Amino acid sequence: MATATPQAARPRRARSLSATRPWVAAAFLLPALALLGALVVYPIGYSVHRSFFDASGHGFVGFDNYHEVFSDDRIRTALKNNVIWVVVAPALATALGLIFAVLTERVRWGTAFKLVVFMPMAISMLAAGIVFRLVYEQDPDRGVANAVWVGVHDAFAASAPYPGAHPRPGGDLAADANSAFTARSVLRAGTPALVPLVAVKPQDAEGERDAVPARAEPGKVTGTVWLDFVRGGGGTPGRVDKGEKALPGVTVEAVRDGRTVASATTGPDGTFALPAAADGAHVRLPASNFAERYRGAEWLGPTLVTPSIIGAYIWMWAGFALVLIAAGLAGVPRELLEAARVDGASEWQVFRRVTVPLLAPVLGVVVITLTINVLKIFDLVYIIAPGSSLPDANVLALQLYQSSFGTAVNQGLGSAIAVLLLLLVLPVVIVNIRRMRKEGRR
Fold first, then answer.
1. What family, per the record (predicted)?
2. Which CATH number is 64-147+299-440 given?
3. Which of 135, 252, 322, 416 is the most exposed place for a label (fewest CB within 10 A)?
């Protein structure tokens, strides 16, 4: 005969804390919800509401602010630059981080290298902007980038010996269409030619020998090129006076009917000698003698300012990508890599077909994080770009600040830009949330 199981012996289904005491869960969630509403929900709602009003905040303008967002040239430039930032910066920073992580995985000094690459993350965007504003200075004596660039350029191309020099106005020498200086008088064998110049920079003539009048040589056309200037004043213009400096290394040409018939280079004392073919020709000093020295690239000019700022951003955030990718690489099963090598795969094939696919979740995290970050970029652009190039380097976050708090204060337009920026960030955030949920279900 079956006996009934006592009521006390039956197992009772455990109920969650939220099911038995919902007020406890609400008490814990309320502070977070209040903070979220005050710092996120309310500002977003107020920005959307404010975007439908004019600058004063009293007149309802409907979608006029949004129409201005897409019709204003400054804002369209900012939108275009944001697209460039989103396409270029996360991709390059992630690629550099991936390359650095893979290459330093097996070397003893890999940790030290990662520390050096990650170190820029320890400084603020403001400090990094000040550093790179100096790095991109146009003057090679101050800007590191142009100091290197000019050094490389000058290693392959000789600079002009006397940049900016020219003859006295109203003299025998006159500038032509090619910025060269050609004499009106003709050269005569046996009669030394005098070629005086002025406006030579002191450092270019410092230490040179005193000029001497050229001697007549049979069958040759001779002359002297010198700095027709005496320190402290004095001397006679157009005549080689005592103490006036020679200008060695100047190219002198003899030109007849537009053709160069002879050429020579002045010696240490400033004298030159042309063959007899120069008799009856005109002396010409090519523009290559006086071209301004190469000053490097205009990194912060309208053309290069955005790529230059992106370079500064990559310098800062490549370390972030490196650390995350290196952590993901440490979790890659080594037996899979070794199996691929045993099967005959090259290192490039192992990297492309095994390492990168296994690191895809980590790479996705890095790319999405950097994409959200560059959509809100403000500090670097505001600090690095000079005033003349700031409109060309403009981005949406900077335009939002200028429209809301700049000279023409219009917080209605600024709120419309903020809403646009939110709409651009939302798809990336949604993709990130879906990726996190997918990872959580694994």
1. Belongs to the binding-protein-dependent transport system permease family.
2. 1.10.3720.10
3. 135
Residue 239: name the closest of 253, 254, 226 by CA.
226
Q: d(Cα 95, Cα 88) in Å, to the nearest integer?
A: 11
Q: At 360, is the secondary structure helix, strand, or coil?
A: helix
pLDDT digits (tens, 9 = 90+) for 52-63: 998 888 899 999
pLDDT, tens only, 201-213: 888 888 788 999 9
Give the position of tokens 């990650």: 118
- Which H, E and C letters describe 16-48, residue by residue? CHHHHCHHHHHHHHHHHHHHHHHHHHHHHHHHH
Residues 6+ apart with CB under 8 A from 187: 193, 221, 223, 254, 274, 278, 279, 280, 281, 282, 283
The residues pairing with 255 across neighbouring beta strands, listed in sequence order, are: 260, 282
Cβ 141 vs Cβ 148: under 8 Å: no
Residue 244's contacts (CB-CB under 8 Å, 6 or more residues apart) are 210, 211, 226, 227, 228, 229, 230, 235
Q: Which sequence spans correspond to the domains of the chain?
A: 64-147+299-440, 173-289
Amino acid at position 268, single letter: P
Per-residue pLDDT reduced to its tens digit, 410-435: 899 999 999 999 998 888 888 888 88
Tokens for 283, please give them.
């002396």
